Amino acid sequence: MATIAPFRAVHYNLDVVQDLERVVTQPYDKITSEMQARYYDLSPYNLVRIIRGRETPQDRPDGNVYTRAAGDFHQWLDKRVLVSESAPAIYPYFQAYSVPGRPEARRERRGFIALLRLEDYSTRVVHRHEETLSGPKADRLELLKATRVHFGQIFMLYSDPTGAIESALQGAAVDAPWERMQDEYGVVHSVWKIHDSATIDKVVAAMKEKKVVIADGHHRYETALAYRDFCRERGEAGGRAEYVMVTFVCKESEGLMILPTHRAVRNLPSFEWRNFLSKASQFFDVEEIPEQGPARSRAASFQKALRDAGQERPTIGAYGGGEKLVLLRLKAGLDLSKELSDIAEGLRRLDVILLHRLLIERVLRIDPKAVREEKNLNYLREMDAALDQVENGESQICFLLNPTPVEAVWENALAGQPLPQKSTDFYPKLLSGLTGYWLDNPLGI
User: Fold this and answer.
1) Nearest to residue 206, comparing CAs of 142, 153, 252, 163?
2) What is the largest CA-CA distance in the chain?
3) CA neighbours within 13 Å on the CB side: how many for 193?
4) Both 212 and 276 in a single domain?
5) What is the pLDDT of residue 59?
6) CATH number of domain containing 380
7) Contacts of 189 (CB under 8 A, 6+ apart)
């Protein structure tokens, strides 16, 4: 089962950088061009310079983004901007946050950072719940080859209904955290260090009983697998590349939250709203929402209507501009065993499956390869952003979803039925830069 290990984390030296908020970042795939520019301005040591370097940075015109990233990393080590822990540890990582749209509702998600021995999916130890895209993996692999450092976290779920592992870690959290900061979304991130061998051994032994499911970071995990295989081909089998840095979170934790990821569709050779509704009506009952001003002003009430309708039966929102706003409710008598015969029975009623298999593939005729290559879809967390893309003509139609339940994510992964990419958005994100796993750390793993 899951083999985990403590490690000597590479981290920012607070005697030098003083303020973590100026140097750590959101995950690389969540960094927009505006965020990238802001991170660059915050500090010359902001991690964005390594994980999302500019193609032609003003200060470093030499080399490419990957060689510059490696150069910056080693310079920061020389300047002691980055330092290594002297002894292996595991690192409890808690995140206190407000539910988006409900600032009065506070939650805390509790996990811990450790190394995980990489396993091919075929061993059924590590399970994926989403498909991946080829572009991000190629980019991340080049960065990993150049730097030999895992800078970002992979977010994995494990099951522990009794909470035994969280209890074993709880003792560390009574003291002041080793690292603490608040990010740009108001999330408070706290990290502790556990060097105690008895506690580490207890957690390592407990995790050997577990299977794990990737919640976030599928591209990073598959990049780590590719790099492991690359190192094996070079005669480095059994080395440090056999492991990757992971944050583990109990799936029964009350702090887990999934947000929906909406889809905006572009580049269709021909699209006509009424024709779309006619074809969609073979699978869904169509409920048109009366026009009451711009779609953006109706977003909050529509989101509630979507959520309420989804409690009765699977429901997807669709917007085609102007007054073209509808709820698509799955037909009560539709035989999903016939329509989705290749999908596991317990997963056929998931909104994201119905969207991709019935609306995107069969109604809009977008094939799965085009989806994987992102030729037609934009993925957006905020409903307003999805509506705006249609309003400004960037997209022809957008689909609005309810979040996928955690249990469905878990069951889907264990059943070997990956969801379409971007089916989930676990919130909040795990920050990059709090800890790093350096494969060439001279102090050891």
Assistant:
1) 163
2) 67
3) 16
4) no
5) 45
6) 3.30.1760
7) 93, 94, 95, 179, 180, 181, 182, 183, 431, 434
Overall number of domains in the chain: 2
Enter the pTM of the model: 0.86
Query: What residue type is 39 in one-letter code?
Result: Y
Is 415 within a domain? no
**Is 413 within the bounds of a domain?**
no
416 falls within a domain: no
Evaluate whether 419 touches 131 at the Cβ level (below 8 Å).
Answer: yes
Peptide bond into 88 cis (omega under 30): no
Rounded-to-integer distance, Cα 66 and Cα 294, Å = 45
Under 8 Å between Cβ of 229 and 244: no
Strand order in the sheet with 262-265: 284-288, 325-330, 315-319, 397-400, 262-265, 377-380
How confident is the model at residue 100, as a pLDDT?
80
Q: Which two tokens stand for residue 125?
A: 């130890």
pLDDT for the residue numbered 308: 93
Contact by Cβ (8 Å): 46, 151: no
Residues near 228 by Cβ (< 8 Å), separated by ≥ 6? 118, 241, 242
Closest by CA position to 219, among listed 435, 400, 51:
51
If asked whether residues 367 and 340 sit together in one domain, one would say: yes
Q: What is the pLDDT, as a whole number, of residue 238?
A: 84
The per-residue pLDDT for 337 is 94
**How wide is the angle at C-alpha 372 spanned by C-alphas 370 and 375, nearest 5°?**
45
Residue 414 domain-assigned (yes or no): no
Nearest to 247 by CA among 255, 239, 235: 255
Instruction: Catalogue the E-assigned strands of 306-444.
Output: 315-319, 325-330, 377-380, 397-400, 425-426, 437-438
The whole domain housing 398 covers 261-402
The answer to whether residues 185 and 55 belong to one domain is yes
- Rounded (10°) CA dihedral 9, 12, 16, 18: -130
Q: How far apart are CA 441 and CA 431, in angstroms?
A: 21
Cα torsion 206, 212, 214, 217 to 10°: value is: 40
For residues 168 and 209, membership in a common domain is answered with yes
Place of tokens 């056929």: 348
Examine the domain organization and report whether 234 and 280 are in the same domain.
Answer: no
Give the C-alpha separation, 172 to 95, whole Å: 15
CA distance 52 to 65: 8
Q: Which residues of the chain have pLDDT under 70?
A: 55-63, 134, 291-298
Distance CA 217, CA 43 (A): 26
